[in-house]
Amino acid sequence: MPTSNSHPSADNNAHGHGSHSTNHETNETTTLLPSFLRGAIEHEGESGRHGFHPRHFISVTYKSSNIVSQYVNLLWPFAPLAIIFRYALPHHPLLIFGLAYIGMIPSANLLGFAGQEFAKKMPKVAGTLIETTFGSLVEIILFVVLIVKHREPGEGERDGNGDEGNLIPIIQAAILGSILTNLLLCLGLCFFVGGLRKTTQKFHSAISETGNGLLLVAAFGLLIPSAFYSALKGETTVAKSGLGSLISEAKFTPETLQRDIVKISQVTSVVLIIAFGCYLLFNARSQHSVFHEVIETDEHGDLDREEDQARMKYTGTETTVALIIALTLSTLLLIYLVEQIEAVVHSGVPDQFLGLILLPLVEKAAEHLTAIDEAYDGVINVALFHCLGPSIQTALFNGPLVVIVGWILGKPMDLNFEIFMIVLVVLGILVVGNFLRDGETNWLEGALLVIVYVIIAIASWYYPNPDVATSNGIEGLVVSAGPKHVTVDRALLTDLLMMVNSDA
Q1: How many CB atoms lie within 10 A of CB 402?
Q2: Positive or negative, the Cα torsion across 54, 56, 58, 60?
C-alpha cells in the first residue's frame, strides 16, 4: 500500500483535536466500517516512501519499535539454524526443540511489529483490534498444528500423555496457560515497569471493566464442561467383576459421558465465538468513540511519542512482506516444536508445564514486548488493552476455534480441563479484577502478579502427567471380560475382591 506525506486535512482533523468536539456526538452512531473502507492512513503510520526497499526494510526490522525488540532481533540466527538442524540432524530432537523455541521469539516479535505498523495505518480502535489479532495468529497456528498432529490413545484410555501422541491435554493446558500468562505475567510486568517510571498509573474504566467482565463470562463458559464431567464421573461405572458371579452394567457409561462432553464443548465453542463477535461489534460500534478517545489521549501522553514518530516505518508493501515472512517462519518453527514434544516429555518436562508455561511464553512473546513497552512509555490504557484483549480472544475465539477444527477433523477435542488449571484461571481473573477495581496501579501490584505466576509455574512443574494422575478423570481399571473391555471402579473392585476373599 503506497503512502505519501500529502495526507488530506479532513482526515487529519477527524482524528485530531480540531474537530473533536463537533464530531463527538456523531462518532457515537458512526460505524467503524466506512472510515476503514475509505483507506485513510493515520499520520503516525506514514512512511513517506513507496514500494519495497530492501535496505530500509532490514533497517526498520532491526530497529523495530523499542530497544528490547532490537535485542530480541539478535536471536534471528536461531530461526534458520532450527530449519537446518531439523533436516541435517533429525536425531537430536532436544536440540531442534531448543533452537526452534528460541527462533520463535524473533519471529513472533516480527509478526507483532508488522502488526503494529499495519495498525498505525488504520483508525485507532480498528488498528488496536487488528494488532491484537496479528499477535494471536501465532497462538492459532500453534493450536491448529497441535490438533492436526494429535493421535488418539489406545482403546479404553480417557487421558494420555504427549509422548503417546495424545496432544489434547497439552492443547488444553496451552489455552488456559495463554490466559494466565497475559493476565499475571504480562499485566504484572506492565504494572511493574510502568510503576518504575511513574509512581501511580491510572487507566480508564471502559477498558478494565469491559475486559474483566468478558473474562469472567469466558471462564464460566470454559468451566461448564469440566464441572459437568466432575459432577457425573462417579455415576458412570460399568463393571464386570470377571469372577463369574457378579455382573453389573449401566447405561450411562464413561464412553457416553465422554461423547456428551465433546458435544457440550462443541456447542459451547460456537456460543463463545458468537460472544467474541459481540465483543468486536461492541468495540467497533457501540463504544467506538469512547475507546477512540481513550487511546488517543493515551498516545498524546506517550513519554516517547516524538521518538516513536521520528522512527522509520514500513511502507504498505513492506508491511505485507514482513507479515508473510513472519507467518511462514512461525508456522515452520511451530511445526518443528510440536514434532519434538514427544522427546521433550520423555526428557522429563511435564505435560502441564509444557502447555501451561513454556508454549504460552513463546507464542505470546510479541504481545508481551509490545504491552510492556507501552506501559513503560506511560500508555497504560493501550498496554491494558494488549493484556486483556488477547486473553479475551484466547478464551472466546482461539480456544473454541481449535475445538471446532477438531470437530471438522473428527478428533474429540473438548473443554474438559483439569480442575487444578480451571481453579488457577478463575482465581487469576478474580485477582486481576480486584487490582483493576480502583482504576489505578503501581509497581507493587505488578510484582505481586508476577509472584503469583511464578508460584503457578512451580506447581505446574510438579503436577503429574494425565496418564499418571488426573483431577478430572474417571479413576478406574480396564478389565477384560470375554471379548469386551469394561471399566471397573477401583474402589468397587477392591470391595468385590474383599467379598470373595471373605466367602472363601
Answers
A1: 26
A2: negative
- Grid cell, residue 361, equals 511464553
What predicted TM-score, i.e. pTM, was given to this entire model? 0.78
User: What ranges make up the beta strands (E) of 14-76?
Assistant: none
Name the burial class of residue 21, with classes exposed (0-12), middle (13-18) and buried (19+) by CB atoms within 10 angstroms of its CB: exposed
Does 239 have pLDDT greater than 80? no
- Binned at pLDDT 50, 70 and 90, residue 340 comes out as very high
Helix-strand-coil percent breakdown of the chain, rounded to 5? 70, 5, 25
Number of alpha carbons in the 13 Å side-chain half-sphere of residue 321? 15
Q: What are phi and psi of 488, to 5 degrees?
A: -115, 125
Amino acid at 96: I
Q: What is the pLDDT of residues 453-495, one digit of tens each?
A: 999 999 999 988 765 555 565 554 444 444 444 444 555 545 5
Comparing 63 with 156, which gets the higher pLDDT? 63
- For residue 193, the one-letter residue type is V
The CA distances from residue 49 to 44, 413, 420, in Å, are 14, 47, 53
Task: Please give the Cα distance from 312 to 294 (Å, whole number).
Answer: 26
User: In this structure, what C-alpha cell is assigned to residue 476?
Assistant: 478406574
Q: In angstroms, rounded to a whole number, what is the distance separating the alpha carbons of residues 276 and 2?
A: 33
